[in-house]
Amino acid sequence: MAVAFSPSSTVTACALRGGASLLGSCFLVLRSRRAGRLQSAVTTRRSRTWCAVIVGSTAVPEASAEEGRHGRRSSEQLALPPELVDELVEEALVWCSQHGLIVGDKNHPRSGKAPGVGLLHAPFSLLPMSFPKFYWDQALELAPLFNELVDRVSLDGEFLQQTLARTKEVDLFTKRLLDIHSEMMELKKEEEIRLGLTRSDYMVDGETGLLLQVELNTISTSSNGLACGVSELHRNLVRMHERELGLDQASVLGNTAITQHAGALARAWAEYNNPRNGCPVALVYFRAGYSPIDYPSEAEWRARTLIERSSAIKCPSISYHLVGTKKIQQELAKEYVLDRFFDNKGDIKKVRQCFAGLWNLENDSIVMSAIESPELFVLKPQREGGGNNIYGDNLHETLVRLRKDGGNELAAYILMQRIFPPASPCYLVREGKCAKENAVSEFGVFGAYLRNKDKVIINDQCGYLMRTKAAALNEGGVVSGYAFLNSIFLT
Ligand SMILES: Nc1ncnc2c1ncn2[C@@H]1O[C@H](COP(=O)(O)OP(=O)(O)OP(=O)(O)O)[C@@H](O)[C@H]1O
Ligand SMILES: [Mg+2]
Fold first, then answer.
1. Which residue ranges does UniProt annotate as crossing the membrane (predicted)?
2. What's the mean pLDDT when you consider all of the chain?
3. Given 79, 95, 100, 171, which residue has the most CB atoms within 10 angstroms?
């Protein structure tokens, strides 16, 4: 089966040969060429605050502790002697170059166009950060529940169509996805083998101490490779400076995201169980296709439809893709909606506990609150890939305009409670330079779900992504230039 895709994407058919269980057939991998897409122990469990602090014999307590947004002492920072910072930065930069912890350099004209040209170390936090085991356990427990939820919602075509019906009227991209979805419903197309590679992102709310979900990604869940790389980087730095840092390298949590995700892809291929080489395609993995610019002409939409109609396993299917939209996230957070998908009340409670405030814009009292206090909300369109959300003054202006226009355009967005995680000073390295920033973090848990008819073959968490960014920033992507890769040790 031949598949065309966007001119901004490379279509790579990788025949897997030689591996004992991977003989024959092939994966089809869709990757975007845009570089941007290819993408302390001073924690108290009681207050559940956490911070990027290394306790060490040469580390010196800082004079002042950071105050949280609500006046609460959120964390304490121990400063490193400047000469140790310099040494660590140099070692880390060399390590990144030697071990491929690199991204495309947006300032280089040939970056992303020629292999091996225009590469730069990925932005990283110099040191790992503490993370309460309490949150870790909670996020890991949630991972299989969210995987299962994605699968169940994906099977409820009516729910997807109805929930997105108003959005469809004003958002052409969502409409095109929904059109493919309705075509599959009309064809009564069933996906017997379903594969989801997910990432559920969370922030700790400084006010309540609750772990709140930012969003659930079901397409092109990125940074699994970078996340594994940064924990290896930190382990290596800690190993070389165990005494000065007062940390044991084994305490830096390892990350299995890349091997587990690759393993799930391979297992899905095995379930497809057609060892002929070359044809048909067993599995299509989308590393692009989540953004309107990935579909510059009708050819890409035809390709997406062709893939959806095919017998290949899609990662994700159109249904899994739609489940990851912000609008579905908002609908699932409404009272009793989860009851449609889960029988177990305990599971419903656990999942609901991590939901932040989410609203549609038909709720005028919330729209008015957001206009009055835009700093407490995030306005989100149905987009992926970072840089699309609207904050602060822009949020105020956008809502005032949309309300005045009085049209349906409000339905393109959802409103979300803005989460304010506790901030603490962090050493952050970008483009070879280290700066100490007052920073907040976002914690993502990768997941994998594989099902063949009635049999769940994989439903697991697959490691983590810790991203740290300056507290003053709104967005949080690593490759998009906002956040820094980080790793954790549990306290
Ligand atoms: N409710 C919120 N409170 C605080 N920050 C938020 C909130 N929602 C989003 N953000 C910030 O904006 C970033 C992007 O938001 P979101 O994950 O919703 O968009 P996305 O385009 O789907 O991103 P991604 O490319 O990571 O999938 C988040 O990583 C986070 O840093
Ligand atoms: Mg997303």
1. none
2. 86
3. 171
Please state, in angstroms and rounded to a whole number, the distance separating the CA atoms of residues 188 and 240. 59
Query: Which stretches within 241-372 are classed as H helix?
Result: 242-245, 257-272, 298-309, 318-323, 326-332, 345-353, 364-372
Q: Name the pairing type of β-strands 211-217 and 9-15.
A: unpaired
Residue 449 φ/ψ, nearest 5 degrees:
-140, 125
Q: How far apart are CA 69 and CA 65, in angstroms?
A: 13
Residue nearest to atom 19 of ligand 1 (CA): 386
363 carries a ligand binding annotation = no
The domains of the chain are located at 9-39+48-243+257-356+419-490
Give me the phi and psi of 218, to 5 degrees please.
-120, -5
> How far, in Å, CA of 240 to CA of 422, rounded?
30
Least confident segment among 24-33, 226-235, 237-246, 309-318: 24-33
Q: Which atom of ligand 1 is nearest to the CA of 419?
A: 3
| b/e burial code for range 106-141 (CB count within 10 A of at least 16 → b) | eeeeebbeeeeebbbbbbbbbbbbbbbebbbebbee
